[in-house]
Amino acid sequence: MTIRKLEDLELGGITFLIPHPGSPPSEIGMNRQEPGIWFITRILVNKKNRGKGLATELLRAATQWADENKIKIIAEIDSYNDGGLNDDQLEKLCNKNGFRKTDVDAAGLSAAMEMTGLLEICAAPLFIRDPQSKEEK
Which of 77, 87, 80, 85 is nearest to 126 (CA)? Predict the structure, then answer.
């Protein structure tokens, strides 16, 4: 499986893609919120490619990149009821990849970071993953 990385670090965005001939790619995207902190904006896997572990592979690629660059990642858990992973499955995926649930939701974090205007207000639970060294994995 080939994972491609597209980055526009000047604009503060990075996307990891798994191409699928004849259908949209699977992807995970992240945006820089502030130096050293990035927010997962999307994990997308086309319906016909679900159930193959692609979201796990994409999240692994993103966390590996974050570890190499000493980046903290924030993930909002909200399935949007689109027929993909539900909130419980997304939470398990995050836990399995080193994220921890916070006591604050995105609205609370947004209020705490109001001065910088980093996050939009929403009420979904947030998970945070600190960068890990090779020894911690």
Answer: 77
